[in-house]
């Protein structure tokens, strides 16, 4: 699509000449023709549901009778009845789920980034069996989340789980831990499983960035006698920064929408509910389409806001040559 | 003292041997050029000296100290890479300063060195720029600057000019020569370009397939190539080679019969060749003359006009093609027949092993100025 953008930029120049040449006009026509299908599909599969969700958030729609609703303005978000504030923005459960989600995102993405860099650096070195290692490491990422969450659920089971068994045998714990039910450990458990699952993805993106780096500058650094640790922080890290930020944004967007992992591991527990789990609960369990849509709309806004902030902070322009 | 001494240096990658026992004695302050076709091992040899590759066998010493097991940074060398190898995210100043920061030099000391090198290379105005904002020639200067600030005992250059355009290559070549005169540092320079080798070197090392073919001054190599490979590699256009037979052997000359029926008496020491033996005669295009009664005749296949001189490619029968360089504009047309004369004192003879027969005249070179006046055999 960037080509099309470039094409539509042409008229700015042609204003100088008065009017567009017929060649420019036919190029712009062709560009629109080529991007039209993707624009239409995007509008249908992304634009329409989004618009509908935002619309529902301003209504009192109910899952039982979706066609029968009234426009109620911002009341799903915030309303004042007889001096009492109601609505999503006053619901402590909602704010708890927002906090859970943000905490989960910050912690899991940070750990995944550090581990991903380490794994990528290891896989980038030449050693026998590197090809096989690169394939093996992707397995956690290849397993569907629901399946791996179930698997971990069993491994973490307080009575029959292999993890409690191992820790008991090693004498590290005295009694089995209810990993996913205990509020103290539940969110950390979710983070651990997420790290296990998505570190390979991080590692793969970072490995791709590492392999783009020219080898000659490392030889130059070697001749100059620069310490490898210093080379990493002063040369490697700045050079992979654009790719790293893209990977972090990808992962953060994923993490902010986290649903299946938490839903399977900890069911509907309020302590660990993420924003998506909260929205699903309103929409399906409580059948409150209006309120659920309001929550979904806020999720959309929060994610959009955080993305814009991250991009601005990293000053990354996607698709720009880092050099 | 920063002499570089290689004693039977060998290198293998796994089972593949790429350097077969190189012995070399590079004197302090000398400018030595490694030259050879691609894959001959010249870059590998340089990387062995730099310490970027491990030496499989043999000894390498720099300034009298054995450095086989020393890290590159401890060898007192600086290297300029073909691809410049600049840090893309650092500006020119930091590119030059980065390697110095860990040495115990102070900020002011680093600053002084960087600005001094920048002044020397006339890149002071570029210090704040990133490599991507520089032209190829400017990047190469920064790469050289980064080597200069290290104040090395030995400069290593790995084909530093091959990414530059022709005009810039000549200019940078002159600057490197000037750098050598100014610093008097030992320099080892790898190139596949024989013009660079001839113009820059005190001594040239010709490498082929991991072995040293000949070491000598540029003119030694040009006038007295030790073997067929060096004769063919040095000089452009390439030396002509004609398969001949030995027709007679004198005490200090060898008479060879040319394929067309003529013969030439070449003033070289026979060195064990016998009558009837097959032998290769080599002669440079400048020393083949068009004359009414030459030893060879042929048909002009192609004419290349170069302005100050021109090249004739002559088919002398049986697919033998001779190159002739004559001054001025061409006076012959494609398809015409010419008679060629070979200046006997400029002829080289190579035995079937490729080894050259030693010249009778010893160390003095044949007067290159007046081949027309030299006596000729027909």
- Segments of chain A where pLDDT lies below 50 for 5+ residues? 1-16, 319-323
Q: Return the CATH architecture of the largest domain in chain A.
A: Orthogonal Bundle
Largest sheet geometry of chain A: 2 strands, antiparallel
Mean pLDDT of chain A: 86
Uncertain parts of chain B: 363-378
Radius of gyration of chain A, whole Å: 25 Å
- N-to-C SSE series of chain B? EEEHEEEHHHEHEHEEHHEEEEEEEEEE
Please report the distance between the alpha carbons of the first and last residues of chain B.
54 Å
Give, in order, the helices and strands of chain A. HHHEEHHHHHHHHHHH
* Basic shape of chain B: elongated
Count of extended strands of chain A:
2
Structural class by secondary-structure content of chain B: alpha+beta
Q: What percent strand of chain A? A: under 5%
Q: How would a crystallographer describe the biggest sheet of chain B?
A: 6 strands, mixed
- Major interchain interface with per-chain residue totals: A-B, 19 and 27 residues
Q: Within the CATH hierarchy, at the fold level, what is the topology of the largest domain in chain B?
A: Rossmann fold
The number of helical elements of chain B comes to: 8
Q: Tell me what portion of residues of chain B adopts beta-strand conformation.
A: 25-35%
